[in-house]
What does this fold into?
Amino acid sequence: MSDDGVLTTSVTYDDGGIPLTGVLHWNERQPAARPGILLVHGGAGLDDHARQQARRYAGLGYPVFACDMFGDGVAGDREKVMACLTALRDDPALLARRGQAGLDAMSRSPHSGEPFAAIGYCFGGMAVLALARSGVPLAAAVSIHGSLATGAPAQPGAVRVSVLVCHGAMDPHVPMDHVTAFADEMHRARARWQLIMYGGAQHGFTHQHAVPGAVPGVAYDPAADRGSFAAASRFLAEAVAGGAASDPSLYHGALRREQQLRSDPPEGVRS
It folds into this structure.
């Protein structure tokens, strides 16, 4: 067992015959099933960033299923990744169905129980919002530096989940007109939603190992990273009241680890 008590196991499942492989993270210090979180990766697939974020929330006591939206043999092959991203982006129903397959896989784990929540990063944020727009009855849906535009806006009354969006104010990949359009959409849908903007933050602000200038408009922002994790943690705790985050020993332990990262950030990202 690691110092944070988090264990992992690979989980195979499928969506319409497409084989998928996700990773379940759970905290061995929790003796019983807890509200489960579906974590949806960004555009690179189920990579180290997605696994690190899953471990981060598992450190709070939640079982976290880092799902696979692409299928076996796609991640790492740029041509296949782009084709898969385009297909999912252009078909919101397929995008939501692929996310639902991850929820179904998580529901079969003895470590996770209802209510479920979902968190997504970049492309994953778009996927989580597609789930919310489709009417999936989650407790919470959190998009972190995620895409907000959609070809299938939520209909009035369709969004049955509390929504949190954490957005970098200087994100050129999700411009301000997308933000205002999203706000208008949520208002028309009569959704329960919040949007937090982080001044100066660009796209991908939770990627600690992003190389400055390597991808235009993408940069790590320590303050936005810490702020979004704190905001999402509070949001989840309220949404699944009485669940895992009510365990103070795990919660404060996770906060101590965050403070250690703050005092000694990874090489190359000191601000």
